[in-house]
Design goal:
The chain has 368 residues and is of the alpha/beta class. Helices cover 41% and strands 19% of the residues. It has helices at 14-32, 46-52, 58-66, 89-99, 123-126, 167-183, 198-214, 225-234, 246-259, 303-315, 320-335, 353-367, and strands at 5-11, 38-41, 69-74, 104-110, 130-136, 144-151, 157-162, 187-192, 219-224, 241-244, 269-271, 282-284, 338-339, 349-350. The structure holds nicotinamide-adenine-dinucleotide, 3-isopropylmalic acid and manganese (II) ion. Manganese (II) ion binds at residues 250, 254.
Length: 368
């Protein structure tokens, strides 16, 4: 079997720190499981700007297009906040998502039993939680035209962003979400703002049509996004799969992260359309950012990125056994009471990013 091509883009801030821990797992897999990847490492975000003068160089994008999967840390930081808009680190991330056609962003929020007490919510609200947020990733308010800042004849300035979706964009994210729901508990909640925004009236109509024509076995409900944010903290277990617009999904997934104990726990997969052979372009990244407030302290939680790598093994490389091993190692380490600062609880042992990574390897050794 030829080695799978993996492009690793650590990015900025804690993105680089957590990716070191994933590299250790990859090294371990090479030594102990005889699985090796054809790895290229590249720059994205502020670190790419510092070297190339752009947050995503054409060569890096070409590497991403040629890879079987991309694993990304995080981008951004105060050092680059005052750059012109098109040079900002975040533009690099948005460009790679758009150019790779990664319209479906899967953000699973699952609560590990050992972390029930790490959530700021009551244990019975979150225990056993397993929901999937499907965020549309290449359209909506993030990409709609017109956009920009203009000066009006009266000297005032005007900022514009536009929420747009075509029926085909709605249908493809709808199908991705319905397909996932079908494999889970067959419940899909479509989140919109159809009481106010026409674009999401269309979204709702298209979701209903899909359900009636292709997914009658899946129960479809609708919820306004403001209510959905409230329901996520009131009673998150009412949800199975949620599907929503790009920016709504960005906000709801950070909110869902706290149900699991920390933003440092939430992985994600961003997938494109399947080709004739069933292969998809794919990028895996934690939901969190570059966390400048804790950068350089060796205290970031690497588990979201480690779990993103496990999603990569499962979705892109068909390595379910290894993905299971990583998830079981994470469970075992948490059960053993080790915690990075963000998920620390009384009576547990506080460990650094690197000790968390080492501990995962130790558990993998036991499971091998
Ligand atoms: P952030 O996600 O970086 O941090 C939010 C809070 O969560 C911070 O207090 C941080 O310390 C904490 N946190 C995040 N990840 C953690 C981890 N793994 N372990 C422990 N604590 C963690 O969001 P922000 O502060 O709003 O943004 C900082 C920068 O990151 C900005 O430049 C932003 O644009 C960028 N960002 C990038 C991505 C991405 O690359 N996907 C996502 C979000 C934000
Ligand atoms: C995320 C981030 C990004 C987004 C930013 C950094 C462009 O917040 O991945 O959730 O808004 O999509
Ligand atoms: Mn976000």
């Amino acid at each position: 079997m030829t080695a799978k091509k993996l492009l690793i883009l650590p990015g900025d801030g804690i993105g680089q720190e957590v990716m070191v821990q994933v590299r250790r797992i990859i090294d371990w897999m090479g030594k102990k499981r005889n699985i090796s990847f054809d790895i290229t490492e590249g720059l994205i975000g502020g670190s790419a700007y510092d070297v190339h003068g752009t947050p995503l160089a054409d060569e890096t994008l070409a590497d991403a297009m040629a890879a079987d999967a991309v694993l990304l840390g995080a981008v951004g930081g105060p050092k680059w906040d005052d750059l012109p808009f098109d040079k900002k680190p975040e533009r690099g991330l948005l460009k790679i998502r758009k150019e790779m056609g990664l319209f479906a962003n899967l953000r699973p929020a699952t609560v590990f039993d050992a972390l029930v007490d790490a959530s700021t919510l009551k244990a019975d609200v979150v225990q056993g939680l397993d929901i999937m947020i499907v965020r549309e990733l290449t359209g909506g308010l993030y990409f709609g035209q017109p956009r920009g800042i203009e000066t009006l004849p009266n000297g005032e300035r005007k900022g514009v962003n536009t929420l747009t979706y075509t029926t085909s964009e709605i249908q493809r994210i709808g199908r991705a979400a319905f397909d996932l729901a079908r494999k889970r508990n067959k419940k899909l909640c479509s989140v919109d703002k159809a009481n106010v925004l026409e674009c999401t009236v269309l979204w709702r109509e298209e979701m209903i049509k899909l359900q009636q024509t292709e997914y009658q076995d899946v129960e479809l409900t609708h919820m306004y996004v403001d209510n959905a944010a409230m329901q996520l903290v009131r009673n998150p277990k009412q949800f199975d799969v949620m599907v929503t617009e790009n920016m709504f999904g960005d906000i709801l997934s950070d909110c869902a992260a706290m149900l699991t104990g920390s933003l440092g726990m939430l992985p994600s997969a961003s997938l494109g359309a399947a080709d004739a052979n069933g292969n998809r372009k794919a990028l895996y990244e934690p939901v969190h950012g570059s966390a400048p407030d804790i950068q350089g302290k060796d205290i970031a939680n690497p588990l979201a990125t480690i779990l993103s790598f496990s999603m990569c093994l499962r979705y892109s490389f068909n390595m379910d056994a290894e993905a299971d091993m990583i998830e079981n190692a994470v469970k075992a380490v948490l059960k053993g009471g080790l915690r990075t600062a963000d998920i620390m609880a009384p009576g547990k042992a506080k460990v650094s990013t690197s000790v968390m990574g080492e501990s995962i390897i130790r558990e993998l050794e036991k499971l091998a």
